[in-house]
Amino acid sequence: MKTAAGKSLVTDTLGRPVRDLRLSVTDRCNFRCPYCMPAELFGERYQFLPKPELLTYEEMARLTRVLVKFGVTKVRLTGGEPLVRTDVELLVGMLAEIDGINDLTLTTNGFLLAQKAQALREAGLHRVTVSLDSLDDDIFRRMSGRDYDTKRVLEGIRVAEEVGLRPIKINAVVQRGVNDHTIVELARHFKGTGHIVRFIEFMDVGSLNDWKMDSVVPSAEVIERIDAVFPLEPVEPSYPGEVAERYRYQDGSGEIGVISSVTVPFCGDCTRARLSPEGTLVTCLFASTGFDLRGPLRTGATDRELEQMVERVWRARSDRYSEERAALTGPQPKKIEMYQIGG
After folding, report:
1. What is the bridge-based pairing of β-strands 272-275 and 255-259?
2. Which residues share a beta bridge with 121?
3. pLDDT tens-digit series, residues 258-282
4. d(C-alpha 25, C-alpha 54), whole Å
5. Beta bridge partners of 259
6. Least C-beta-crowded within 10 Å: which of 66, 136, 177, 309?
């Protein structure tokens, strides 16, 4: 079987191709969400990557072209918070010109979205996903780690819709005892708007977020709570390997999704690769290490040599951490932090 670029399809040890690229453009963020970048660890003195260590936009575009040859058709810009990187729309424009990418999207906390949405759309971005864990301002402040309310995020969503960055997805990480009592109101707010709220089980990404199984609200419980107020019915996946399980309102007023990587792992369908801001190719969200592409790229590697490196990494891939989690006992292995490779 051939990819769109004419190369033979490359699969990993479990037969999974690479279809999606999560491209992290920065390790910096203007929020301090406790489940990702807790403020007590990432204060003013924390040393983020110096600019020379970050991939340039040209380098990111070049590595993306390499991955597209292996079958990547979807590219999602992440962080950190991608909108804090200067002129990120320039990167969007470079990626929009790459043949083979049919879905170019960006995940953001929405704080800077209102001022950037038009430029992103004009550069060629298709749509956005906005992280919004609660509409309750006090809970939002607690979960964002900042003394902000939700107004700027909601305004960002409004402007993104206005300029055509649709469909908009709203990601909400659900933690028991923190925001789980507000999930129905979040669903209610966006019901009928055309936006899709996706409720995400609190995951043990990285090693710094104080993850405990007791804090996880299973997606089945989320669906049960919303269904009791707004009757739901399941919907078939939009494409093979879709992360979210889809449900639509029976009254036809839209849909929601749940992402259940803790209670119902979907490793068997995972087609995602991740590229960190400093050029490390990572094959699993829960990985402890990755493969350096920046070094070879900056020391003169040809595209063909880079392709050979990527092929070797992907063919050797055997990640299925979420499926194996239940068998883990004792100390958890150290993992790459989420702010380094996106969600």
Report:
1. unpaired
2. none
3. 998 888 776 778 899 999 999 999 9
4. 8
5. 200
6. 177
Q: Token pair of 171, please?
A: 């990601």
Distance CA 276, CA 284 (A): 12
Alpha-carbon distances of 182 from 120, 141, 253, rounded to whole Å = 31, 14, 20
**Per DSSP, what are the bridge partners of residue 232?**
249
**Residue 189 is inside which H or E element, if any?**
helix 183-190
152 band by pLDDT with thresholds 50, 70 and 90 = very high
Q: What is the C-alpha to C-alpha distance for residues 55 and 130, in angstroms, rounded to an integer?
A: 24
State the pairing for strand pair 103-108/74-78: parallel
Is the C-alpha dihedral spanning 77, 78, 79, 83 positive or negative?
Answer: positive
The DSSP element (H or E) to which 258 belongs, if any, is strand 255-259
CB atoms under 10 Å from CB of 240, counted, come to 9
- State which amino acid sits at residue 48: F
- β partners of residue 24: 78
Relative to beta strand 232-235, strand 245-249 is antiparallel
Instruction: Dig out the tokens for 156 from the structure.
Output: 């960002």
The one-letter amino acid code at 230 reads: F
- The answer to whether 169 and 130 have CB atoms below 8 angstroms apart is yes
Distance CA 148, CA 132 (A): 12
Length of the chain: 343
- Record the pTM: 0.90
Q: Output phi, psi for 298, to 5 deg.
A: -85, -10
Query: Per DSSP, what are the bridge partners of residue 103?
Result: 74
